[in-house]
Protein 1
Amino acid sequence: MENANSYSRRDFVRLAGMAGAAALIAPNFAFEEAKKRKFKIGATFILWGYNSDNLEPALKDMAALGYHSFETFGNVIDDWETKRGGFGQVVQKYGVPIVSAFCQTDVLDPSKKKAELDKLIRWSKLLKANGGKVIEYCAGGRRAKDFNYKDHAKYMIESMNDFAKAVTDEGLVCALHPHTGTPVETEEEIYYVMNNLDTRYMKFGPDVGQIQKGGGDPVKVCKDFMSLIEHVHLKDYAGGETGYLGYSPLGKGQVKIAEILKMLEKRRKKMAGMIMFELDYQQNGKPPYTNFEAAKVSRDFLAKLDYKFTPITA
């Protein structure tokens, strides 16, 4: 098809002249260039569950649906490396490369810092050894009902700077992931920490569904911190009882997915990580889809936006 198109364009130039041909070719050229700008999109494995047993079922479905990469938890990589014969062998089996690991450390309790730092460095080394590039970093610690980030601000910023620098020193990118139920949840908290962290080390890895659920505006947040975005969890949020903690397959919720993707396209070539489809697993939930179906609904929504997926067959 490409050769046929090229031939017809040369014919037209020869017969109609350069000026007339340019008017016809320019829109086609612009369309081709637009297609080149489209992200390759991966998936996080949380839809399939939280522990090491869920890794193979997740990779099997991701490969069949054509997702380009995946993300799992740092502790899952650790478990496969130390107890299950190696993480790399299971990744190679399904052919979906890892790009990132979700890692959480406590930012509220100084007595835990050394252990948390050691853990994060260990997970960073394992991720890098298996070809990953980004630590999707989540600030952890128990968030009480009366939690006020201002009461913890000094240690939060100091500890996150140290954690991010440690990741950077391992040759990876550390990207902050705001998350409901953690010390960085609301829009106010996001703006505070991102405006006070040392962004030489801590970049931004927004989860647009989490921001929506936390009462923020994911379009505004992404726009304001676009220059720091290195990785993104692309998640939709519908609210209520969905079987997925209020989240939904892409295109079924309130998040302006297409608008966010359009903005992110301009950042694509500068990002260390990727756009990752995500939908949260809910223990004892009653989801309307199987895991495969939910991932397929989301993939098909993205395909309608001209994102391409190539299934991997065994």
Protein 2
Amino acid sequence: MQHRRLGKSAIVVSDICMGTMTFGSQADEAESLRILDASYDAGINFFDTAEGYPVPPDAKWVGRTEEIVGKWLKTKPRDAIILATKVSGPSHVWFKSPKRNGMTALDRRNIIVAVEDSLTKLGTDYIDLYQTHWPDHDTPYDETMEVLDELVRAGKVRITGCSNETAWGLMKSLAASERLGTTRYQTIQNNFSLNNRRFEDELAQVCRQEGVSLIPYSPIGGGVLAGKYSNGARPEDARFSNYLALGGRQEAMARRFVNDKSITSAERFAAIAAEHGLDPVTFAVAWSKQHDFVASTIVGVSAFDQLAPIFAASDLVLPDEAMKAVNKVSREIMYPMG
């Protein structure tokens, strides 16, 4: 497993991060603990969760993921784990956190309440990387960054990051931090995959110039790049199969991932992977890691038997011809996720 620095911080992480979004819903506690143990044994030291997990968001199980991670954390040396979690911002799109009765924001009160609750559920006295889960462009960035700085100074948080942020929002926050002399965002956690390369349009350059690391999620396109939804398949209990049945925001999100363009491009990427003797999942994860602005790629599974092709990407470097073939598909099928 390779290791990279998060932004300009002192924290170094494995270049694969295990995400926990399904823990407590699709994956029960026993399966979740098994996945966490296997990840640790494979050399992963970076684990990502959120106060609003598991998803889809539901008041009946919100917070369960942090409790499972906290239970597992007690079985490992705390210093050996780089633990990331998130505070829920306001619901701009499909994700509405049930925390605080859905009245989430990135103001002082919400952040203080959220971090204390996460520390309790995780059973630890500090969080390595604390992230804002959704941007709050209506709350002044000065207020957000000042309270995050207080948490760092108090020793409850080591470094901070953002998630699902825009280029404008990331630059706005960095400018506020520089002006106020507070902690800065060292990371940004956004969607980035073979099927969604929008990050490269603007945000990649911000990361390069400002020393911020991307820790991308959904490198397998929610299972689409694994071929899970090809040929009209709708696997039972698969995330987007469930979302399509739920309707509303969840259905809209599912159709962004699962559509004719995304499935066609996934099939072409799978063909490239096959030419190089690789599983499409291994190929997709390796491709995600192979960018200068990426520190660690966040993967996620709902079952132990999905781990092997992910771990196979740990030391893999794709050859130039594979990268060129990917770029050709991306030019011919632009923005398959919209």
Protein 3
Amino acid sequence: MKIALENATLVLQNQKLEKQFVLVENKKISKISSDRIEAETKIDLNGNFLLAGFIDIHNHGAIGIDVNQADTQGLYEISKFLISKGVTAWLPTLVPDEDEVYHRLVQAIDELTEFEPKEPIAKVLGIHYEGIFANRQMCGALRPEFFKTFTGKELESLPTPRKGAKMMTMAPEIEGGLELIEKLKQSGWIVSIGHTKANKETLDEALKRGAKHLTHFFNAMSGIHHREIGVAGWGLISPTITFDIIADKIHVHPEILKLACEIKTPDKVLLISDSIAPTGLGDGIFELWGEKIQVLKGKTKNARGNIAGSVITLIDAFKNMVSLGFSIEEVAKMASTNAAKLLNLQNQMGSIEIGKTANLVAIDENLKLTFAIVGDKFCFFR
């Protein structure tokens, strides 16, 4: 089936093009033109912005479903919710837990990956293990009783999906941490530094061994002091390092959020939700990860007084970044392009280019979602 997306304002890497036509054929973008394209199905986007679909590499769940507890149907329901928020692809993100939880989730991911949905849903791209190998002093909302050290064998017993990306957030200063980075890289993992208070020397060595990204920048890492660079300072001054950040204006003060992203530049920043199960359910008290989590006015807090993830989605983060003065083209990079690069999927998704999968979303001038397509499945939002 050929699908023509008509009268779109394309948001490309460094520009916007008005009155464009995009042909989707065999689930891929096959033609981009300023001239009308013939197709069996024509969709008029009425001049709305057409962007690469958002990619969320750090998501613990939504609508009452926790990734750690999710079965195949649960992952499907989260994926269905995410597409309604402009997310066309995501990494289910595990917090430290019993080993059997990891095996159950990987099985669910494998089952969903093989399933061909009849409606558009956000595609599961693999798995993200957050904090199994973390610094106990920087645990945040994670449960340190499930933390591990690396002695050389632990990775072999950690299950991974048959297909897709494998991402690990870890602290390089833990016992065996630097050796773990080498092992992860040799096994095809994307290594991200997080839940850490490593010193500059350890961070420099971690970078040499292949850890080139930082998880939820500023949060669960040592900050900047005028006599101590901290993990955050190191991330800002290291030219090859990228970072992801929770742009809910709660985890990071809006002015600091803006400053950090300007310093690092939009080419090296990824937006994440760090969404937890209560996302989409409003304020209340919820049971999560063995304790009660309070959500009040969009802010989460556990019994220890720590922020416990967020209740935003990437469309919220997108709007917040635009409100801070970043252009739609810049925020599109942070919401999609840069995540595709981190996951080594830039040849398949993350930008509007011929040959890439048609994972696309449309927003109007008020940044309200109006349309989404994943391959050849599409939906409208009112």
